[in-house]
Records
---
Amino acid sequence: MAGVFAVFGIAFAVSLLALAEKNQKDYEQREAETIINGVKESIIANMDNYKALTRIIMMDEDVLKYQRYKNVNPGMTNDAHFGVQRVLNVSTEVDSVLLIRNDGTYMNTGHGGYEVDINRIQDWSWRHVYINSMGKAFVAMNGNDTIKKADGQQMATIIRPTYDLYTLRQTGLLMMNISIEAMLDRILLTQQHDSLCILSNEGSYLAGNSSIADYFGVQFLNADIVREEIKDKTEFRTVSGMLMKDMPFVIMCGTGEGNVSIPTETLTIYAMLLVAFIASVIIASIYITNSITRPISNMVEAMERTKNSGWVKTLDAEVKPNEIGMLKDSFNTVIERQNDLFDSLMEQEKAAQKAEMLVLHEQIKPHFLYNSLETINFMALEAGAEEVSLAVETLGSFYRNFLSKGSREIELKREISIIQDYLKLQKLRYGDIISDEYNIEENTKNFLLPKLTLQPLVENCIYHGIRLKGEPGVIRISSKMIDDKLHLTVYDTGVGMSPEVLEGLLAELQGKKAKFDNGLPKSFGLRGTVERLRYYYNGDDLVTIRSVEGEYTEIELVIPRINIEGEGDEDVQSNAN
Amino acid sequence: MYRVMLIDDEQSARRLLRASIDWEQLGMEVVGEAASGIEAINVIDEMKPDIAFVDISMPFMNGIEFTELATKRYPNLIIIILTAFDDFEYARKCVSLPVFEYLLKPIVRLEVKETLERAKEKLDSISSVSTEQTEEIEASAIDQIKKYIHDNYSDSKLNLTAVAQEFGFSSSYLSRKFKSETGKNFVEYLTECRMERAMELAAVNTKMFSASSAVGIPDPNYFGRCFKKYTGMSYSEYVIQQCTK
């Protein structure tokens, strides 16, 4: 769990840092763009002012006269000079104004050394842009390379054509030179930014932080803001820049020196988010452990117990009455329903069995059988058929014991009398080929054993033993007590069994062999007896078989004492029903 | 000679028992049979058995009820219950009764013989000296007894011994005295009372089974025999005769 938290925390911190850095960059970027746009707007506003000034100058009466008349005299030049000066009184950054007549005559209000390339101005390839501009004012550096100031000071020039106010005839050009460095310094001063720099479109430095000017490249000659990642010695920095539309200025702004930083509140909020996130994860995991994982593992344990107990029981695990509790409840409902179904199935099965038993008993109708036998017995006596009478009496006695529904267990002496009656009747059928002997010890006579334990074995003696041999045989039944257990032996001098057959039989009795591999096996009687004894006594080692092929077979059963009270009560109960 | 009585509603069972045992060899004789408990109650005083074989499942009065009654009235009577396994529930009730032995049907003569030999030993050991009644019975007492019979003949359990015990006499003495006083023996008198009443009932076309239980012989077979013996004709004949008059 702790490892999961650590991974969570590290991942969160890394992403927080990355996010913070990205944010920082974005922030700086936005800052830079804002500044650049601010500078741009200021420049445009200033230039617009100067353009307006040129318009006013152009409409001055003396200026108009200077430009209109065919011939110029010094008086007119002087008047024009004054006319310009009147307008320029309101501005300080205007260096000079040039009025250029179409005939190439010009006047300059500036003092000091100017170098005016009048030939170039008069050259159509240069001037046609301005003449055909329908009165538009242009901004260019140093009169679009026609004017140089002797001290090398850079100037921005507004160039526009002049028109006669009355005839609307184009009369010449007006060029207003502005001390651009002074103007830009003033503008930059308002921005309070260290890494701001303005260059001309040819890359010459005009104002601001000159170190930024080193990063100038043609990529910044773009009307949109261009961002450039630049490796500067050890650290990376970003430089943004743009070329102003219709103006010869490139504004550049550097970022990444930490001078503009993201507000600490943002980081604090991120950190708090991290803490809140981790805390909520911990709380959620505790909640999940308490209310989901533990109840579920409790339930699984309870199910495991139920499984091991071998009986489908309802879960006893303690669960809060939430969804898990509902799950447990519905599971228990299912189990209860299932148990109810089991019970009702069992009940139905029992009822069906009972009904079947009743029907069987009805069919057998012992009373009818017994009365009929007694009637036949009497008739035989009347007719003097003593043997018939005895046979019928034996049959009656046999069925009396055989059908007895009094008890599942009977005393050994009664089991023996069943055998005696049975053998008596069999002897009537098969004659003297069978003789029977009994070695019943006195202390075993009242021993209780499951009814009809011996009869199937004796039947086997006849049908699988003596009858197959074809010569008279003996069946001997012995009983004795050893260690408070009844040892019953059924011995016959029949055909016996080969060791292989004996082995197969034993394997079958142990349940190691398929029970009905060839239909009903020969040993069905024996197996039925052994299985019943196992059911009664929950034990093995109940049966031993000794045999010599052609000589004898001896089956010995070891029967423990039954708990008589319990069994007896149960029998009384079942009979009372 | 010990006297044996067979009480069983199955004729074949009675006949088999009578035929399959060599009674004389055991020093016994079968003195009578009864086909129901009701009949047995009525004839037992005449037969005076020492041993009674009693079947359990009999109509009107089963072997258990009979045994309960008989062991009270005849304390020396040896009762041997004969039962099929169907009657196991009855047999359980018998456990509380002083029954000499339970034998299972169908009978096995060896078992019966062994049981009878033991019964004989027991009878031999009981002092045969019966205490003779010394007290004189007043003639008035006989009148009282006659009245008692009249009032109680509808009780199917009424017989000589019952009356003798009620009045504190020995039954043999009462029997003799009753005969000498009235000229009839007790059973004849009781039967007379019952049959007279039965004839009255027959005259108003009462069904036989109703009449038989009304006069204290709820076994219609035995009642029929008594009626025919008394009137010379069967109940149904008598009813026809009376109602066509």
---
Amino acid sequence: MREPIWLKMALITISAGFLFVMLVMPLILVAKEALARGVEFYFKALTDEFALKALYLTIEATILAVLLNTLFGLASAWLLTKFDFRGKTFLGSLIDLPFAISPVVAGLFFIMLFGRMSPLYPILQEYDVAIVFAVPGIILATVFVTFPFITRELVPVMESQGRSEEEAAATFGASGWTIFSKITLPNIKWALGYGIILCSARAMGEFGAVSVVSGHIRGKTNTLPLHIEILYNEYNFTAAFAVASVLVMLAILVLILRNVVEHYGKDVEHEEIAEPAADLKVGVANG
Amino acid sequence: MVEVEVRNVNKTFGNFKASDNVSFEIERGKLIGLLGPSGSGKTTILRMIAGLETPDSGEIYIGGRKVNDLPPGERGIGFLFQSYALFKHMTVFENIAFGLTVQKKSDAEIKSRVEELAELIGLKNFTRRYPLQLSVAFARALAPNPELLLLDEPFAAIDAKVRQELRGWLKKTIHQLGITAIFVTHDQDEAVEVADEIIITNRGRIEQAGVPIEIYQAPKTPFVAKFIGESVQVADYTIFKGFEDYEPHEGILRPEFLEIGATIEEMPQPMPVTTEKGIIRGTYFRGSVIQIDIEVKGQLLRGLQGVGDNMTKKYSSDVLIIGDWSICVN
Ligand SMILES: Nc1ncnc2c1ncn2[C@@H]1O[C@H](COP(=O)(O)OP(=O)(O)OP(=O)(O)O)[C@@H](O)[C@H]1O
Ligand SMILES: [Mg+2]
């Protein structure tokens, strides 16, 4: 079917215009506002003690969320795709819960679980463990909010690949670890990479749940998004936008990585299933 | 010597009985065809022998050793999966070498074994004649020198012409290697052509086991009689001349049990006592023979004639001999 040229042009204009207003303009405005008081002020805002502390905390929470969710994602995707058991569908929807629930509610949930009103609170006090209004709470909230991302990327790929390669490896006496590292992992590495990227992007930007459990203690429990909010509320717009520009740059980096992974991942995980032969042939010539 | 013994094996999935008291024995060095319709439990049997599935009850022996509690890797088997299950991120070399790598064989040993196998499947000097994936899967399964090779519908994904050639190749190669092999198929021609012996499965049960020609000539159950070879079912064969004295019973009639001639005199062995008149309802050219569908006493029967006989015209008034009824089953 061929669309008339005017329709094509109209659609392109609408999409481009929309993208410009909703994405490009805000980015330009962020950059413009961030540099409004000159480059020197910009770097000063970034290297401010509290800004750096917030950056470190954001990085810390992101790394931990990615690590924990990678382990959790691999385990749950493995469970969901390689085994049959009762309540599988239920587990699957449970994993999606953080997508469905408002992050603020998730934050409140952690306050209820670990805060003063919780029956666990006396025990935590006794061992001198602070979770709510402290770094562990921020990490917990970040992990909770981001935990579906990796599982969600892995499940369809592992499902489509089935179990037969793993079974073939088992017939040769390969150990569980060998099967995982030599067979399963190489087959899902792109999906895993993609999941990790999405998970980090979300972890870096997380505001709602973290905001509830943080307590907004400057230099202690502030992440970048929270720090930006504080600066903004103090009418320190230029500094707020300067710090925001860091998040924007991180987002752009994630976008680039995402494209790289998608580009390579597509070739490997989808086309190879259909025709591994071409790839195999090359191997023999070298082997 | 018995290489494989399966004794009273049962397996259910949910409430579906995939294996129902399955028992059979396989002699060492034999190529066995596991034949049955789709869903009859062939793959399940193969997977239980391999250790990829655990039987609910019963015992499995390989080489005299009970293997029920052994993991697949310790059973001395090679498994060729229906979809080949090649390791898709590995090269051909790495695929074939995988079993040896897992066993931590030396590089030199691995290299010489892989080269040996590459030669077997014709990969080495570009003499490969068969599909690459199948060849690699075959070599990979053979690499660690299994005693028993298990093949799950190895030719299912291959086009008819090549498949025909592959049958002969498989039989020759397995016998050359001198290993025991079980291959699953739902194609009776393939089983009859390739296998030394056939085991027929139906709804999770073993219907019959034996040499193909024996099964063809003396089927033990109605299912086998219908499943192996061509046949027509007759509700009650005592309606035909010469068979009136038997107990009324269902019969299964193979095309070669009919002799067809325009008149009694024209038949190779005229036997007026069992000759009936029939009406030709259709003739079909089937490559090397002509199939004749012929109605006798309201019952549609099927016979075959050589193409050379050029009978299509001749039988305007038709006579039919009902020959051998040994196929009648209870
Ligand atoms: N893991 C499983 N879970 C549930 N049902 C199964 C499982 N494996 C097999 N079955 C069922 O058991 C029955 C027998 O399956 P099996 O694969 O052994 O048959 P088959 O003879 O190999 O058939 P086909 O020719 O289709 O491959 C099928 O109806 C199938 O649905
Ligand atoms: Mg099968």
---
Amino acid sequence: MSTKREDPDLEFLRYCSDEDLRPLALHLAYGDDNTPRAAASLDTNPHFAKDAANLGAHWADLADELQRFGGDTLANLARGGEGVYYREILRDVGKACKAPCNESWHAMQQEGEILQTIIQRAFKNMNHDEQQAFAKNVSDGLKDATPEQRAALIKAMGVKDLKGITPALASAIVQTGIRAGGFLSYQILLIGLNAVSRALVGRGLQFAANTAAARTLGIFLGPIGWIITASLTVPMITGPAYRVTIPAVVQIAGLRRKIFNHDAF
Amino acid sequence: MDILHFLDFSKIDPEVAAKLASGAARVVNGAARCTESGEVLQHLPFKAVRLGESASLLPLGQKISASLGVASGAALAVSTVAVMGTIIACTVYLARKLDRLQQKIDVIERELQGQNMLFYADKITGYFGALESLRELMLDPETANENADLIVHKLAMVGALRCELYSFSDNLPHMAAQVTPHHQSLAVDFVLETVNLLPKGVYLETAAAYRIGRIRLGDTIREASRKKHTRTLEQLRRWANDSVKAIANGDPRAVRISEHREAIRNVLDSEENTLLLTLSA
């Protein structure tokens, strides 16, 4: 199975587990109030159902759906029902978020810039207490990091150690970690999302185990997604469905980093 | 349907079975021997069994072992290896596999003319061709005894080809990246088939050495090959993981291995190959 428009930037989805794909599938099919999205076709897709147990087999349907959400409805019709390449979605989302964009960057790099911008924006929109909570949560999250991860972060940050983390330093750590890529990126992304989640919503991602954290990464598509999308004051225009595509890009960025940082075999 | 004679582990002396379980004894060439001294503790009887149809070697080995009354433990593992080894040596199992491999090589030769993959295909054909002639010589114990000198000669030749093949096999997966995307699936399929077949060849070599009483030679072939195979699997594992990561990174040159995921896992985690490269029977 492949996408209608073969998209090398989304092909990695076929390596994601059912559990990993579920938040993305639900996000694409259902709105915030849990009613089917008017523009969604997944719900009527014979391959897909809300409780589809074998989402991994239908990764291409999810990719197709996202491609369609990324394109203008009329233009999609003109393309015979096909949407746009993920690269185009990234460019649109990057511009909407006012993140640095570069056509020559590969998907992971462009997603990293978008993630950094979103988390930075969320941090700036926090009040003093929320920023303190954010710093504490980043500090707590780093306690679970391996010595190698801490050493890599210290090196990337150019600091002596990771003690006494201030809000500014916490924000810098998350930015640096995401930018660093590699194995640090996924962990730091989870720590960053967790810290934003705790600071703004009062409950965090569960870090009992990486798998648990990965499972709840989907929370970014829920309350966190709404807050951040709102904070971005993106105009709800009829073109690319930012309310769908921005959280979807964040989710895909997280999934991509998970696949990139784990051995499949 | 073939009727084959398998070692009957249900007739093994309980004392010998205990030694087998503790590692104090091992089975070589159909006889339980003291691991230290090589002294024969018991010659195991054979039992005729009608060979059923089964696509896979390991399930067939386990099924026949169970039908022989071998319940569990070390005896079951050795019995399973013995059954698998007998099937490899005495049936068209290997010939069928080689036919399949040869079909792939034919396609590769047709499709990938002038590419490096052809060079590897040539090496693989050489090894398995020599192995087939070794199999013919060792099939009948009397023929093997009469032609021990020929078997030694063949073993030296096959061993050299195997070493050459293993030294190349680390690079085999990377060959897939050098062919056009259109042919990558074919190349990956060929690599997996080859790596999966190598332990069967090693088992035959080992069994041939045992058959003419060259027990240490057989042990050396198996142990050296086990180490090389482990290294080859590690290379294969790394290549497969890197391929997935390259896909995640959106690298357009990444080898698409998704349709081979199950086959890659089967080769990497093959219990049947581990047994064939670990136990003698």
---
Amino acid sequence: MAITEALCDEMRQLAALYPQSRSALLPMLHLVQSAEGEVSIDGINACAEVLGITSAEVTAVSTFYTMYKRKQVGKHHIGVCINTLCGLLGGDAVYAALSERLGVGHDQPSADGEFWLERIECQAACTHAPVMTVDWEFMDDVTPATAVDIVDRLARGEVVESTRGPIIRDFAATAHTLAFPNDGLADQGSSVDDKMLAGLMIAKERGMSAPSAPAPAAPTSQTEG
Amino acid sequence: MTLTPVITEHWDAPDLYTLEGYRRFGGYGALASALKQDPDSIIQVVKDSGLRGRGGAGFPTGMKWGFVPQNDGKPHYLVVNADESEPGACKDIPIMMANPHALVEGVIIASYAIRASHAFIYIRGEVPNALRKVANAVEQARAAGFVGSNILGTDFSLEIVVHAGAGAYICGEETALLDSLEGYRGQPRLKPPFPAVAGLYASPTVINNVETIANIPYIIERGAAWLRQFGTEKSPGFKVFAVSGHVKRPGIYEAPLGITMRELLDYAGGMRDGRTLKFWIPGGSSVPMLVEEHLDLPLTYEDMAGAGTMLGTGTPMVFDETVSVVKAVTRWLEFYKHESCGKCTPCREGTYWITGMLEKFEHGHGSVEEVDKIVHVCTQIAGRSFCALGDAAATPYPAALKYFRDEFLAATHTSADEQFDPVASYLFAGAAR
Ligand SMILES: Cc1cc2nc3c(=O)[nH]c(=O)nc-3n(C[C@H](O)[C@H](O)[C@H](O)COP(=O)(O)O)c2cc1C
Ligand code: SF4
Ligand code: FES
């Protein structure tokens, strides 16, 4: 892995999207992770050069954000939400099972370099607790057994689908999506599930709806059409 | 009160996320009519509708837009806050995955109203699937001539950039978000000046929540009076409620503001079998918890304030009697400690101090003296911190103590796990491996 000229071109492409180029720094650091598997020194220097700022400035930014890693993440990033709702409703047990399966603790790579395990905070999916992520794609409603099974299938190279999203690729591919979100996968997999439709289904069953027409202008008018 | 699907109305259409799907239900009709009106009249409709921001604070949206100085010769910016990371909040990400075009259409209309030619959608980095859905929608809108130069043959032009964050809850705070979007560490700025005057690149900027902006096309299409049919005088409209926790059917329920938690709980199938409600939180861990006696209060900004809490993000978390409140609060404080940006002393030091004490309680080693000492530290953080994250961090403990003092006292000798078998609150049977 290396910082190629093609990658620097992509960085310049990002910088050009913004009225002020420095705004592209976060996406550029995602790009560095997609090529290097971590925020490497070479990557930091490349960002600094493209943006015309110092490496120290880039480093200061990269150390603020938890998604940027300073060690090789490996093939797959595994997150388990341990914030109160997920954690207490089973995420703690899911994390414990995965930690045992992978032989690592929080924010660490597995010995074979295939997985990175992280206790993550609320993933904006609490309705789907306990929530796990693989390369930041949703794995909703997991149990310790299904979570370990997901890791086993990934380890065997099998096809694993996100519960609300596309087929799992790898950490590097997701990192690239974070820089260039139009990755052509918007049509893959369904992003809407029963829980997202819970209220709508009840409304349909019971004939409930919001009036779709504009409200009558004068509330005093009693005329019915 | 009945459910009123509006933003969620067509979520069961498998292609709603596409341009064709969205247009089949009248999508981008509001944009066409908006571009025929004067921008100021769009702001007036939003003011008249009484729409309040859905990001947590409930600030009137039309008023916020009205603060942007006009004819000042500076570029204006619209920034959508799609950083949804508040523990318990889970409605913006679903909106972006299911109905991204409602957001994009809202962005175009709002930009036109505030005379912005550049809009940014700042989406938290941990949710690539929301990011790609929105980016895809923007590209489709561009191909259809709704984004870019001379939109629909008018002289209005707009660029929309979909931007990923990189993991920092504080970047949801609007000024920290701006710093982050400018490529810096995401730390809050001093206010004033407010973003409406000096925001992104020191230019006038409106920052709105995803759900706020997703409301706009419907309001423009159906009118301010239509929105005011829902909700109350002070809290007009409808809300995408997301109910999570120990209920039979956790999920998204869109209803008028003013529905009660008892009604929402009923739609969500009630508590899981054989269990009763212990406590609930109306909208994110940053607002005080409530209990059974509050179930019949209308979920509005004013009624929640009256009960000493806030509507917040309108995403109720529901916990049954198997849950240790000591453990719940400790976990939230660990979150705030982790997410404190470190800029100001009360929050940076206070969250460490409180969390340290709470962790002792969780393990059954708290002291009676510390039960009140934590309250004292909280009062030193609240109102004395640089941004609202500090206030939020000082919220869960005093609220919990109000209802569950005995449990904290018991935690001076008995650990949370001994008081409450953790396995009992899992959503799956036992710790099945
Ligand atoms: C720590 C912190 C985190 C926040 N996170 C979010 C967020 O993720 N999304 C959001 O819309 N507002 C968030 N807010 C509120 C924003 O600062 C701001 O009030 C909001 O985006 C304004 O949009 P609205 O007027 O449409 O509600 C947060 C505030 C604080 C203090
Ligand atoms: S209150 Fe906390 S998050 Fe806000 S500025 Fe101070 S240290 Fe940072
Ligand atoms: S607490 Fe886990 S997704 Fe919100």
